[in-house]
Amino acid sequence: MKIKNSVIGVFGGSGFYDLLENPKYVDVKTKWGSPSDKIRIGEYAGQKIAFLARHGQKHHLPPHKIPYLANIAAFKKIGVKQIIAPCAVGSLQPNIKPGEFVILDQFVDRTNCRPDTFYNGPITAHITGAEPYCSNLRQTAIDACKKLRIAHHKTGTAVVIQGPRFSTKAESIYYSKQNWEVINMTQYPEVILAREMEICYTGIALVTDYDAGLINNPKIKPVTMDEVTNVFNSNNKTIKKVIFEMIKNISDSKDCDCQSALKNAIL
């Protein structure tokens, strides 16, 4: 199904299902299979919005089983040109506190065996991964956080682990010592696949807790599940405000390199 005019795509998980009022449900098929769920189409501030539950509406897809290729291909098929992708993360650094946001600019891939390219031959493409996140969308997210006075970090590296298990304390300490900021299970290959489809993508990390490697830090209190749940629910309410503020200010600009990522990349 092709929708006229450009569309802003939003990935989300639990707590985001009511992002759009009275949405139209669209079942999109791709050559890479079906996406995680039906896509919800709605409007806000004159912009068409497409929402897709990354893990499925019933949260039945663990991180390593998400159909990342189908999700990105489905967004591309309906005309999405920009993707806002909030994700829950754990903090790897004491100065990055639960409840704060991190506007990601880098990732480190620690996953394994995930399908992570649309180019498996006979066509081969080598896109640059130096700056994986859209500079324009990142600035739009930063500006939204500033306007709404939301505690945030302008840059940050997410180490992406395979899941569904969490890190051991030894692994987490190692990641922290590399000066990476947050840990997550879904940013890869999502961001790179968007780039292969020449779609602008921004990852907004929602910090819910401190990761295992920081538990013995005397400055940090052990996290309880109640605290994680409270922060998670609060973050969901706050990120919706950020998303709506971003949507009001997103333009179909072509002055970033995301929408020409395949130029000189295909052999």
Automatic annotation (TrEMBL):
Keywords: Glycosyltransferase, Purine salvage, Transferase. It is an enzyme of class 2 (transferase). SUPFAM superfamilies: Purine and uridine phosphorylases. This is S-methyl-5'-thioadenosine phosphorylase. It catalyses: S-methyl-5'-thioadenosine + phosphate = 5-(methylsulfanyl)-alpha-D-ribose 1-phosphate + adenine. Transmembrane segments: none annotated. It comes from the Bacteria. Substrate binds at residues 185, 209-211. GO terms for cellular component: cytosol. It comes from Candidatus Portnoybacteria bacterium CG10_big_fil_rev_8_21_14_0_10_36_7.
